[in-house]
Amino acid sequence: MSVLSRKREAEAEAEQGRVQQLAWVAAATRAAVPMAKTAAMAVQDGARSAATWAAPRVNGARAWTAPRIERSGLAIKDTVAPKISDVLTATARRVDVAAPRLEVIARRRRWPRVVVAGTAILAAAGAATAIVLRRRKDDGTGGASGQAADAGTGPQTVPDDQPPSDAAEGPIEEGPVEEGPVEGVSRQSPAT
């Protein structure tokens, strides 16, 4: 057998295989169409029976719920609605341009006092804070005066009955105090 004849035979077999595959697909499609129609009818029948089963139950639930909703509406109308009506009426009277009543005037006169008192308290607290912060800055400890003295990093205090340690060296000279970094003294708080 020649190469060409073998090639033609292989092509014929491949073509026959393709035809068989297409025939199988066509047969499966022909079988699927009636199955799909049967399934659609089954779904339709199931939906119809579910609706038939649910209809009386839905109507029963609606019949059970309706009186309860009505009772709730009446209860709200009798309890909550009058309170809302009173609030709206009082608000309308306050908004009205007519002369205000005494109780409204008393409330209006009271609030500026509260604002002034609150402002005064805030101002006093701010001033006290500023004073404390300035004293801490002047101490050079940055807010840790008790801890700095204990750690030996801040200004040392000497009891009244003992002379200062540098008194033995000679008299203390008074003059301009140099500001700047001092060895062994931290200007930062230990918390930072």
Describe the overall structure.
This protein has 192 residues and is mostly helical. Among the domains are: 9-98; 102-140. Helix content is 72%, strand content 0%. It contains three helices and no strands. The radius of gyration is 49 Å and the shape is elongated. The model has no long low-confidence stretch (mean pLDDT 75).
How far the N terminus sits from the C terminus, by CA atoms, comes to 98 Å
Oligomer: single chain
Order of helices and strands: HHH
Number of helices: 3
Number of strands: 0
Radius of gyration: 49 Å
Shape: elongated
Instruction: List low-confidence stretches.
Output: none
Mean pLDDT, all residues? 75
Considering DSSP H and I runs of 4 or more, what fraction of the residues is helical? Answer: over 70%
Quick one: biggest sheet? Answer: none
Class by SSE composition: mainly alpha
- The proportion of residues in beta strands is under 5%
